[in-house]
Amino acid sequence: MIVVAQPWKRPELADQPDLKKLNDELHDLRLEAGLPSARTIRDHVGRDVEDYWIVNHQAVLDAFQKPDLPPWGRLEAIVRVLAEVGRHNDVDGEVNRFKGLWKQVVRETVAQASVHPPADSTASAADDDVDDAAGSSKDSRKQDTKDSSGRAAEEPSAGRETSSNPHQAAAQFNYAEESLKGLILNAAQALWYDKDALRVFLGVVRRSDGFAKMADAAEERRPANATFYGVKSREFEVPYSPARLELVTLHRCLDEHRRKRKWSFTDMEEQTGVSSDAWIRWYTHDELPEREALVAFSHMAGLQMKDHVLLLGLWEAARDAVEAQNRAGTLPSSISFDEAWAMRDPAAPRMWALAGVGGDSLTAYGPDLASGTAPAFVVAGPPGSGRSTTLVNIARSLLASGTQLVLATPKPSPLRRLADRDGVVACFDQDDIGHDEFEEALSRASAEDPIVVVMDDAEVLDECDAQRVLRNLLEHGFEDGTALVLAGDEDKLRPHYPWLNRAKRAHRGLLLSPQERHAGDWIGIKTGSSVVGSPITPGRGWLHLGDGNLMAVTVPR
């Protein structure tokens, strides 16, 4: 018998628009994955170290069909499986998108709970609601909840309008508190199977201002129930790191070996001599573990040589990404051309061009256009990233050192303001460049008196009449005393263009706020997630001078 996959019935959520949107998106994600069954999703999620299903098939069905917000840990596991089965290009991005939807539902739930209490607003009704919300708990817990609620009700928050009926105010606060407790319980489930991580995490929550009073009130009567504090407050969320992909990849590899051996974080402390708190911090905060800790782990786990080499290779990639991120964070937000020019090496050669400032000692950096694998330098980036400003700086620095220029600006560009400067041989401001005119402009170049072509919006001139001259420049520029500096939109530059492709042979350039991985191909280096995808910040970029190293720089303005 052939079993045909069917869509599942969707719950009625007309009065909860945010939850409805989340549920609809979840159903659509399952559709994109080919409508896998609940048991298939369960199997993909897998089992824990004690061989229990992490999410059973009924819990999967509940996430789709019940009119309730599923716990984030369960939802995250389901979304990740569906995104992987559906072959999404960015699985982590899809998970983060659902996390945003989930948070929106949480905010809506808390807001409704604090503003719209139950219709029966007497003190006894509030107590009944508290008891119902904690129906699966013991009577002692119910009594403690009433005590903590009553205490909190005596201290209304600043700016909040106090009800003339004290019983009604108490009921309203109690209901909001119970809603918050429900969210705490849901969030705790994501960490429930790793007691070490839960212990450290709950310790952080206990110290937070938002939950301290509620926790203290409960602990005065009895030892705290761990699940009561299992909330991940936004107050303690770690900011997104551009190096997160490299770190997550490293952590997953490490975690795979840990789970195979059924080691808890406490076991890892006993095996490696590195504290369990350190292991947990590295996991939960997307931090880079110490290399010595990984070596100790590899030794105690008896990893094969290939696994050992892979683990340390991932560590090195993550370290490089973190270092690049840290260097970018220490750069000045802006710097003038004169300030940057004063930071250059006084012994810089004549055809040295100022591209940006960076490095530990904040120095001016740029290419020597008279040397390298090809007489070219590429500036690539999305619109608004500062490409034209970079070209103006490069042009000014070359003019200051006595190098002649030919400007090409097929679109309006700040570069045109330099057309009347001494040393500018010609300025082509049309969307085409004639072969003879361009050849004439470069004819006076020599090794002793070089000329550099500075071109903005290079993708517009991909098939210009002067393309043969440009191709010849890129092949014989060192002998003829010519070089090319070009800038273009990273999405519009194409490697199949007849002469543009030759510019890639220089293997050097500047990426400004790169958004796509392929942008690195134009400057001769691969770019990872630590470099691409950040918000566009004019004048911030990554410089490659052909040595295999990316340097974060700020472009003068």
Tell me what the structure shows.
By secondary structure, this protein is an alpha/beta fold. It has 4 domains: 97 residues, no CATH class; 102 residues, no CATH class; 86 residues, 434 Repressor (Amino-terminal Domain), CATH 1.10.260; 218 residues, P-loop containing nucleotide triphosphate hydrolases (Rossmann fold, 3-Layer(aba) Sandwich). The protein contains 20 helices and 10 strands. A 10-stranded mixed sheet has the order 2-1-10-9-8-3-7-6-4-5, sandwiched between helices. The protein is elongated, with a radius of gyration of 31 Å. It starts with 16 loop residues before the first helix and ends with a strand.
Topology at a glance:
Elements: H1 17-32, H2 38-45, H3 57-65, H4 72-85, H5 91-115, H6 123-133, H7 139-153, H8 166-188, H9 195-206, H10 209-219, H11 244-260, H12 265-272, H13 276-284, H14 291-301, H15 305-329, H16 337-341, E1 356-358, E2 363-365, E3 376-381, H17 387-400, E4 404-408, E5 424-428, H18 435-442, E6 451-455, H19 467-480, E7 482-489, H20 500-503, E8 509-512, E9 540-544, E10 550-554
Parallel strand pairs: 3-7, 3-8, 4-5, 4-6, 6-7
Antiparallel strand pairs: 1-2, 1-10, 8-9, 9-10
Adjacency order of strands in the biggest sheet: 2-1-10-9-8-3-7-6-4-5
Which ranges are low-confidence, i.e. pLDDT below 50, for 5 or more consecutive residues? 114-174, 215-240
Helicity, in percent? 40-55%
Q: Radius of gyration, rounded?
A: 31 Å
SSE sequence, one letter per element: HHHHHHHHHHHHHHHHEEEHEEHEHEHEEE
The total number of structural domains is 4
Number of strands: 10
The whole-number mean of residue pLDDT values reads 77
Question: What is the number of helices?
Answer: 20
Distance between the termini: 71 Å
Shape: elongated
Structural class: alpha/beta
